Amino acid sequence: xxxxxxxxxxxxxxxxxxxxxxxxxxxxxxxxxxxxxxxxxxxxxxxxxxxxxxxxxxxxxxxxxxxxxxxxxxxxxxxxxxxxxxxxxxxxxxxxxxxxxxxxxxxxxxxxxxxxxxxxxxxxxxxxxxxxxxxxxxxxxxxxxxxxxxxxxxxxxxxxxxxxxxxxxxxxxxxxxxxxxxxxxxxxxxxxxxxxxxxxxxxxxxxxxxxxxxxxxxxxxxxxxxxxxxxxxxxxxxxxxxxxxxxxxxxxxxxxxxxxxxxxxxxxxxxxxxxxxxxxxxxxxxxxxxxxxxxxxxxxxxxxxxxxxxxxxxxxxxxxxxxxxxxxxxxxxxxxxxxxxxxxxxxxxxxxxxxxxxxxxxxxxxxxxxxxxxxxxxxxxxxxxxxxxxxxxxxxxxxxxxxxxxxxxx
Length: 410
Fold this sequence. Notes:
Helix content is 30%, strand content 28%.
């Protein structure tokens, strides 16, 4: 029986799904987390891991593994993948090089690696937060996009179409980076990235890297436009409605990006845009799709995404093909404040094709819109015969929901 270490940050929604997959496979798992409440949910082996200090985390894992070795280390969501790579390397296990994972996480390093490999991309520059935004605005072209270096979920990503909007975005992102929960190490604490804006249709790719080769598990459509000034993602639907030529172009682009970064093993989630000039890779994550979004994927034989990931890690037989259309809506936050009530959840769940309506922010908790926010209100999962049917079900279910949000007290 394979023995795996699952590294799960306290912010992850996916503990249950991974443990269920492990039980189905008969794989022994030990859970490492940075919070005791996550470890308390696990009946098997557990180890407390400091994700904010990689050297300490590797030492904690190595001490635990000395008595009972692991066959693989699997990161679940952001916050764990750098530690997973470093720990696996220290233990002599298959892994991505830590530098490659860091390059995937840091948007400036990511752009540098793709540019060095000659891959198409935007013009970009690293900008110090100590600089004069009005002066910088006179030196860049418009439209452009300003980004924090390491934040996820489009947090702090803002399009600017002129000098004034550039200056406003610069100050707004600086304030976001300064928040205690921003987790912006090194240069990410005092720099941001400016990229020329790439128009086009946006897609997401869910993939698995094996010995450097990229296997596409799913290509998602993003039917809602993402033109800015903020880039809040809502609906993902698979299979994407693309022809064979575009699919080949996407496959070639994501393989080239993965190779340029140096990722060699494990799951990956990739965002990209396609226009008349070609395929432009926006981001590559060294982890699988987050939140409850993986529940939108169904593979032949009833296999779920988490089982696919664990099969690869445990070196079990792995043949994957999608089974039917699926989709997810990441429920957007309509206004900032305090969530007081959610109405219409039963009606939303009763919509044909809807498999789940999960509200993941408890009542009484603050909610914050993008670009400052870092969470969704929840997730709607749907399946159906066609992508069009899935999209319609997601929109109908969302329309049935109403959120009562009161202004936050000052």
